[in-house]
Amino acid sequence: MTSREIVKRAIHFQNPPRIPCNYDSNRTPCRECYGDDILWCFAKSQSRFNEDGDKIDEWGCVWKSMGETFGEPTEFPLEGLEEYSGTALPDFDRADRYDEMRRQIEENKGEKYMMAMMPTGIFQIMIHLFGFEDFMCQIAGNTEEFACFASNLTDLCIRCIHRIADAGADGIILIEDMGLQDRMMISPTMWHDIYAPLYTRMFAAAHERGLDVISHTCGHIVSILDDYIACGLDVIQMDQQDNMGLETLHRFAGKVCFFCPLDIQTTIEFDREAIFARAAKMVDCLATPAGGFMAKTYPQPDAVHITDRYMRDMTDAFAAASRALYGE
Fold first, then answer.
1. Whose CA is closest to 169, among 256, 228, 232, 98?
2. Across all residues in the chain, what is the average pLDDT?
């Protein structure tokens, strides 16, 4: 059975023979390899750098990075504007941006599951464009201007989805950080009223093209997870779980596939015995015998002080949990 088929079975609760893993692809730095069933692929970026070495993305956001982190935007191109719905959007849907993705997928020959990063989403990008405070004002007003811009973003995402499907990918992944440490950034009701219809439209387009829908999100998002699943979400990728609690997340087992490392905030200092215990608990809470769990590493290990020893212990622990769930 190919890695691709194992991943598809896990996502769709069709009895995979083991827990799929994504340990090396998209991890920087990758000093030692632990195995992959999933390969990440990307549309071509046209970001640039200023004279200070700061990245300027295609929206015009200026990013400052500290150490090994991806960084944060410090200049927000739409901040304070009253009219912005007609803002020209980057041409993320331009066909030639997907040439390298297509080549990578063709070279894979159906062996690994090809997961394509969406060039943009519709929630987190708003914070980058407006800044957090102005985003809060914009979404609280929920004006026709805001609604029109959000709809335009969704249309762009759908055009990108078609390019990704044309390239032959198996699924898309959205990066949509929506939670704070203890709650959503916006109220669940507001999320339901404004964002659920947009995600439903976007995810339907992906499913119509045969793509699975995967979303990363950080923070405490349990209050909207039922809604997010109802929009058509297939896989939730969480690097934090302990702020919500594995026992709380257990009620979603069988409803959505979880794609997780051990919690990057609470387990980094664990010894091997504690890592094995936590991996076993995670699989017990989030997986089912029919599937619904995939293991991964964090893509910026140095940024959160993940050691090679921790990485080896975690991958060994997930292998042991897989054997306990599915047998040898």
1. 98
2. 95
For residue 144, give Cα distances in angstroms to 83, 129, 139, 140, 198. 10, 18, 11, 12, 15
Beta carbons within 10 angstroms of residue 151's beta carbon: 15
| Residues forming beta bridges with residue 72, ordered by sequence position | 64
Query: Which tens digit of pLDDT belongs to each residue from 207-216?
Result: 999 999 999 9
At 86-125, the pLDDT tens digits run: 999 999 999 999 999 999 999 999 999 999 999 999 999 9
Residue with structure tokens 């200026």?
62
In the numeric block, which tokens belong to residue 158? 């759908």
The structure's pTM equals: 0.96
Q: How many CA atoms lie within 13 A of 50 on its CB side?
A: 12
Q: Could you tell me where the DSSP H helices lie in 16-65?
A: none
| Cα-to-chain-centroid distance, residue 103 | 23
Give me the pLDDT at residue 70, please.
62
Contact 232, 199 (CB under 8 A): yes
CATH says 3-45+78-326 is which class? alpha beta
* Ramachandran region, residue 47 (left: φ > 0; alpha: ψ -120 to 50; beta: rest): beta
The alpha-carbon radius of gyration of the chain (Å, integer) is 19
Please return the burial class of 322, using the count of CB atoms within 10 Å of its CB with bins 0-12, 13-18 and 19+.
Answer: buried
Single-letter amino acid, residue 166? D
